[in-house]
């Protein structure tokens, strides 16, 4: 078994019209044994920028603390929030400098940049970025997430439709993956507000 599959995870970020959604499952497992059903995989960096960390749960928590620390230093020095593109480069550099003993994480970054332009990207555990204009996925359920998102995605969705699309894609995908599941956690971020929703899924 790959170390990336040890805890199980499902992450997806999707772009709408001047908004984005980032969603994850809520299961923390040790291989096939479920340990917790309310595990947090999506973290806030600032009001318009979020990161999801799939992979080994302990590395995800360590990485989150390091990224919050580096972002606070940036805020103190620059007196402004970091742009999503800049933050993606920071995450990539942090992963690459540990390439000989990497964090077993595959991040998904989603944010609103200049002119409320949504930005999403994912990367592997060594920091190789993969940018997208529609959606990015990560985790043990990524294969079924790709299929669900490709069939459901439409450009320029409004926040309500985006929520419906990303929720259905997530729920149908985690049903096909025994290492992720136990409901979902969805964030819809627009220029004016952040909507946070918990999804109930199959509890087995």
Automatic annotation (TrEMBL):
SUPFAM superfamilies: N-terminal nucleophile aminohydrolases (Ntn hydrolases) (SSF56235). CDD domains: proteasome_beta_type_3. Its main location: cytoplasm. It is found in: Cytoplasm; Nucleus. One of its GO terms (biological process) is proteasome-mediated ubiquitin-dependent protein catabolic process. Pfam families: Proteasome. GO terms for cellular component: cytoplasm; nucleus; proteasome core complex, beta-subunit complex. Keywords: Cytoplasm, Nucleus, Proteasome. PANTHER family: METALLOPROTEASE TLDD (PTHR32194), PROTEASOME SUBUNIT BETA TYPE-3 (PTHR32194:SF10). Component of the proteasome complex. Component of the proteasome, a multicatalytic proteinase complex which is characterized by its ability to cleave peptides with Arg, Phe, Tyr, Leu, and Glu adjacent to the leaving group at neutral or slightly basic pH. The proteasome has an ATP-dependent proteolytic activity. Belongs to the peptidase T1B family. This is Proteasome subunit beta. It comes from Carex littledalei.
